[in-house]
Amino acid sequence: MAAITPPPSRIYLLRHAEAAWAAPGQHDFDRPLSEKGYADAEIVADKAADKGYRPDLLLSSTAARCRDTADAVHRAMGSTLDLRFVDELYNASPDIYLEIIDAQEAAGSVMLVGHNPTMEQTLEVLIGHEALCQALPTGFPAAGLAVLDYDTRLAGWRLVDFVID
């Protein structure tokens, strides 16, 4: 499934920001962002917008912490940004993430807001193990945004930027 070719020609992979600990009886799905997570989500969204990163389509897991992160991106990039929530992004495999990206044929660029370890595994499938280890030696951080472009010379995806708070 790693053979995703344009469109989209740009993929943004955004791991949700830091989540709060679950309250007694609270399901993992319902955990919102922590105070730090809210701040980090706003910072990364603003940095991305300042760099001119604006997807045609923003797809987010329906988990509370992803919705909160996606809302920060939506605020930073404007209300005209097409934002959709996708149940299948919660507890999904990298293959599901890739299938969802590949299905967005009408979008020139797509941003996924999702979870680790799937986010890191999806990045690895797209750019390769060596490139992943070189770019993110300590792993994919919370509120990290990977920006990938399709390189026609290489006939593959290349990490062009990684935005953190």
TrEMBL record:
CDD domains: HP_PGM_like (cd07067). Substrate binds at R65. Pfam families: His_Phos_1. Signal peptide: none annotated. InterPro entries: His_Pase_superF_clade-1, His_PPase_superfam. PANTHER family: OS09G0287300 PROTEIN (PTHR47623). This is Phosphohistidine phosphatase. It comes from Rhizobium favelukesii. The lineage of its organism: Bacteria, Pseudomonadati, Pseudomonadota, Alphaproteobacteria, Hyphomicrobiales.
